[in-house]
Amino acid sequence: MDNTRRFGRLVEGSNPSGGIVGIMKKTFLLILLGGIFFPFIVLAANTYTIIDVDSATAYTVTYEGIIPCGRCATVNPAAMAFIQGECGEEIGGVPVPVGTLINHKYVHCSLCHGFVMLDGIIDFALLKIVPPLAALILIISGIAFYQAGASPEKFRWARSVFLSVIIGLVIIYTSWIVVSAVMDIVGIADWVGFGEGWFQIECEITTRGW
Questions:
Q1: Staple 202 to which of 31, 58, 96, 195, CB 3.0 to 4.6 Å?
Q2: Residues 141 and 127 both lie in one domain
């Protein structure tokens, strides 16, 4: 009787190369899908709000990636340029002059932007990484259910994976809801000036703070 160690357990009557090959196939599939979708996910547009304390104007800043500042970003409505052609804008081949209203501005970093980046990372994980990864694992467990046949070992493994994913999702999103509710009840948004909610951040700047 052949005993093969698969996933840390000995399974009788297994093919010694089958377990290793199966793991390699799944690992390759995860890497392949991650390589295909990760650039699109990371480069997805994110937004946050900047309040100009000098004019009491709210600007929506749209940026790509994880870092929200120290770079040129799209602002709406258009804001005044303080440096000629700071983001490469030109009018008739001439850099945009100082005082021109432009929608593409260089945003300097402040402490508030650290919270913006943290919020972006949390949103990235909860909304763009966890759902597709969970869906992929559920599909794998579903295929394992289908292929289990009369094998109790395969059936137990598929059921264990399925339940683990469901329980993990419940824990992750329930924790988020509980934390959000506590933060709103305690009034953390009012303490730190995050705007309408502790996860909706508004950074205050002066006009030349751009």
A1: 195
A2: yes
Indicate the number of domains in the chain.
2
Please report whether residue 210 resides in a domain. no
Q: How far apart are CA 149 and CA 136, in angstroms?
A: 21
Contact 46, 62 (CB under 8 A): yes
* Alpha-carbon span 210 to 204, nearest angstrom: 11
Q: What is the mean pLDDT of each run of 10 residues along the chain (210 residues)?
A: 44 45 54 54 75 87 88 91 86 86 89 85 81 86 81 84 87 82 64 52 75
Asked if the structure places residue 208 within a domain, the reply is no
Residue 206 placed within a domain: no
Strand segments, DSSP code E, in the chain are 3-6, 9-12, 45-52, 57-64, 71-80, 90-91, 94-95, 101-107, 202-205
Q: Are 53 and 205 in contact (CB under 8 A)?
A: yes
Residue 29 included in any domain:
yes
Domain of residue 180: give its range: 17-42+115-192
Residue type at 16? P
